[in-house]
Structures are given as C-alpha cells and as structure tokens.
Design goal:
nine-stranded parallel beta sheet; EC 3.5.4.3; Metal-dep_hydrolase_composite; seven-stranded mixed beta sheet; 446 residues; Metal_Hydrolase; 23% strand; hydrolase; Amidohydro-rel
C-alpha cells in the first residue's frame, strides 16, 4: 500500500453542513471542537470526535494535527473568469465599458495556448491558496484556452467546470467566432473533457448581447445532445445591459426569456448576477430549477447594484455565491462572503456566518448538482478541504480571543480573513497548498 492510499487522520476543529442553517438551525451542521476527519484513497471515510474516532483506529495510523485551526470542506466558486486575472483592479468603468476597455483586449492574448497555460496555472494556484477547490469557470472564445485550463486542472486533480465562450457579435472581430464554429469547438471540448477524471464542461454563451439567435440555438442544441453538461452565462447585471438586450430581442418577454426560448434553463444552468430580475423571471427560475450566482465584490466594484438574496429566498429562486474575478476584486471566498454580508445589510437584512459558510460549501455544491461528491464530509465524498487558521494575523488572533461562541468565531474569520487565513488546502486527500512552506509544494508539484 502506497503512502497516498494509506488512511490519514486530520485532527482539528471540524465544521460541515448537512442542510441550510436558516431552515434547520443547529441540526443543519456538525461541529467538532476536537474533530477527526479520516481520509483514504482521496475519499472521506469517517468524521467525528477525535477521542472516539482515534480509539477505533490502529495505533500507527498517520495523524496530521492542526491545533487552533478549523477544517471545512473545500470552498466552491460558482462564477469566475480565468482569463480576467490580469484585469482585476482596473479603474473606473461600469460593465459594458469595462468589457470593451479592459476585458476584451486582455482575452485576445489567450489565442496563444502557452500564454493561456501560464495564466491557468497561476489562476488555479490562487484558488487553492484561498481554499477554493471547485469553480465554475469561463474561458475565452479560443478553444485552446479551455484545453489549457483543463490540462492544468487535471494535473492538480481539481474538480473544475469550464467552458469556451460563445460570442459572435458586439465584440471585437478578433474575439468573435461563428454559430457553427462555436458549436463544433464546444462539441469537441465536451467529447474530450466532460467527465474526464474530475473535469466537467459548461456550455458558455457569454451573454445575450454577444450572441445572435443562431448561436443561442446552437448552445441549446449542445444542451440537448449532452444533457448532463452545465450552462453558464450572465443576466441582468447592469441596467444598460438589460435595456440593450431588449433592443436586440424585441420579441422576448424579458432578458431570461431570450435564454428560455433556446432551451438554456435547467438545474445545471447558472446565471451570474440577476440583480435586476422581474417577478416573471423569478417564476421561471423557480419552475426550471435554474440558479442565480451572487457576485457581491464585482457588483459593488462595477456599480451594478445590490442583489437582494432575501427576495430570491422568498421567491424560491436557487442561488449561490461567487467571486467573479476579474470584475470581482478577490479570489478569496472569505472576502466575498464579507462583501455579501455588507450588501445584505444595505438591503436591510442579515447574513449569518453559518449561512455564509453553508453557501460557500454545501449550498454552492447543491446549485451545481454536486452535493453527492463535494461540499460536505459525508462518507464517500471526495476529500477536498481547507484548513483555516484562527490566528492568521495579529488582529484576527486578538479578535478570536474575545469570541465566546462558534458563530462569533466564524463571523470574525469571514470579516477579517483572506488567503492568509488558509493554512492548507487538500484536493482528494492530497496537500496542494501549504501556506507555511515554500511555493514548491503548491499546485501540481506537491
């Protein structure tokens, strides 16, 4: 038996969720102050109090201890653009100008596969450094950008979902494909990568503004031919965008109806933003099981608006939380939850620490239909997890010393935490990021 196959116990405080804490309260999660997570062959074997679990195991079993740390399932990001790493923190524009002035010129570089590979490797290491182990990712219009991404993800054995952007109008000519070429490229990528190891594919029309009806029809055709792939796009992020969509599709009932007409709604369909949705659109989200991806840092940064997640809950619209780098301003899901709390406050509501971490783990897994694989420490799940440090900075340590309850400790972690708070990240039971060791141990090299 190799070292990789031997069972290992990870001992620390451990938290994971069984359901939504806003619905089921204390029954929604399990917390072990001195917990033991047992991993073998990349899967979760057992979880419980360390004293009970260790008593059942052989005396010579390997135990990795993280004192004063918290183990949670690997965090999940449901909307992010890997080609936009270099346009993060670009000044002064709202959505449509930001795309034209910053994003489109940056994405042109991804026609060079070597360039795409370099950015893909950097991007994945940044995610892992922040405790994020799964993401729903946009490539560029270039097929090779997605090939480069999947190759880098396969090397790390991360469970990632990615897709080639489909875009044939209202963008620079150097970034436009055609309905037929976008279909063929996407089809070849699906055949090569969907369900290959831990890789999954998402059909990816950028948004209604950049696709003709013919291209959206081709996207729908892919969804029909491959019913278990994902679909990702944008909706109702910016009021000028919504108005432009109405001009381009005057016969549509609303923005969502554009996608609905081409069969793009369903339980694996994730629509980023959804800030300015109408009641009719909420109804169709509910009826089809489609979900909204809440991107608080980019919504604030681009001045797009404040998504009211309490309204989505009242309307029974499924939603998740995401970074949306590079419109979003941090790879850290902790920082993203920090901003989600503030947006919710501005809408006159509250977002608890428990609900926040539920969203970043099991909640996001559920919106991706992956809760049978990731998002919790259910026996048999893939052993992706992050180790969070309660004393990662002097300020964090001081604040934590004053916290009396689990909720207070978690809230301080969310508000004050960033990549420094992630002590280690594991993918399928393998250490892929260790904050306190050299960068040689990170990513695919460990």
């Amino acid at each position: 038996m190799t070292n990789a196959q031997r069972p290992t116990v990870y001992r620390a405080a451990v938290l994971h969720f069984l359901s939504d804490p806003d619905v089921d309260g204390d029954k929604a999660y399990q917390f072990f102050e001195d917990g033991a997570l047992v991993v073998e062959d990349g899967k979760v074997v057992q979880l419980g109090e360390a004293s009970e679990v260790l008593a059942q195991l052989a005396d010579d079993i390997k135990v990795v201890e993280y004192k004063n740390h918290l183990i949670i399932p690997g965090m999940i990001d449901t909307h992010i653009h890997f080609p936009q790493v270099e346009v993060i923190a670009s000044y002064g524009e709202q959505l449509l100008d930001w795309l034209n002035n910053y994003t489109f010129p940056a994405e042109r570089q991804f026609e060079d596969k070597a360039y795409a590979s370099n950015i893909a490797n950097f991007f994945l290491d940044e995610l892992l450094k922040n405790g994020t182990t799964t993401a729903l990712v946009f490539g560029t219009v270039h097929k090779q950008s997605v090939e480069a991404f999947f190759e880098a993800s396969e090397q790390r054995n991360t469970r990632m979902i990615c897709g080639k952007v489909m875009m044939n109008r209202n963008a620079p000519e150097f970034l436009c494909d055609t309905p037929e070429s976008s279909y063929q490229d996407s089809k070849e990528l699906i055949e090569a990568w969907h369900n290959k190891g831990r890789q999954l594919y998402a059909v990816t029309p950028r948004f209604a503004i950049t696709s003709t009806e013919e291209q959206l029809q081709k996207a729908g055709q892919l969804m029909e031919e491959y019913p278990d792939v994902y679909m990702q796009t944008h909706i109702s992020e910016n009021k000028d965008e919504v108005a432009f969509v109405q001009e381009l599709f005057p016969d549509s009932k609303d923005y969502l109806d554009v996608y609905d007409q081409f069969g793009l709604l369903g339980k694996r369909s994730v629509f980023a933003h959804g800030i300015h949705l109408t009641p009719r659109e909420h109804e169709r989200f509910r009826e089809t099981g489609s979900s909204v991806s809440f991107c608080p840092t980019s919504n604030l940064f681009l001045g797009s608006g404040l998504l009211d997640i309490k309204e989505l809950e009242q309307e029974q619209v499924a939603y998740s939380v995401a970074t949306d780098v590079g419109g979003g301003t941090s790879f850290s899901m902790l920082q993203t939850l920090n901003e989600a709390y503030k947006v919710t406050q501005l809408n006159g509501n509250k977002l608890s620490a428990l609900k926040s971490l539920y969203l970043a783990t099991l909640g996001n897994a559920k919106t991706l239909q992956l809760e049978d694989k990731i998002g919790s420490f259910k026996q048999g799940n893939e052993a992706d997890f992050a180790v969070l440090d309660f004393n990662s900075t002097p300020l964090m340590s001081l604040k934590q010393s004053k916290c009396k309850t689990l909720a207070e400790k978690l809230f301080a972690m969310i508000i004050l935490g960033d990549d420094r708070a992630v002590r280690a990240t594991y993918v399928a039971g393998k250490l892929v990021h260790d904050r306190d060791k050299s960068s040689e141990t990170a990513g695919g090299a460990s």
